[in-house]
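Reminder to self: tokens first, then the designed residues, so the page reads top to bottom the way the pipeline ran.
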């Protein structure tokens, strides 16, 4: 579990998740199922998530105040879930909270 001091964090901070298409079952398209855990983990910490499609294949970028604070291959994120046990989600949430 990520722990940090959130007293400096603005209420309802906006976090943009830019995500690209990836291949699954032979079909390449934008999918949000691998973003569910990351969204849940960020919302649990009081952030508002905005999803934005990008043409960059296999990528996720986490943007705070116009700055990319974390990025990874979308396939590194666990499928579905709440993000609490996904080490990549934990790392992304930590990066967001360090951005303030």
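Designed residues (100 positions):
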């Amino acid at each position: 579990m990520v722990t940090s001091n959130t007293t400096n964090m603005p209420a309802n901070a906006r976090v943009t998740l830019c995500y690209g298409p990836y291949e699954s079952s032979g079909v390449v398209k934008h999918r949000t199922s691998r973003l569910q855990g990351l969204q849940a983990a960020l919302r649990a910490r009081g952030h508002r998530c905005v999803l934005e499609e990008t043409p960059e294949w296999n990528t996720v970028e986490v943007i705070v105040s116009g700055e990319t604070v974390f990025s990874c291959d979308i396939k590194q994120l666990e499928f579905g879930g709440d993000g609490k046990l996904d080490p990549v989600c934990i790392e992304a949430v930590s990066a967001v909270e360090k951005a303030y």
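The chain has one domain: 14-98.
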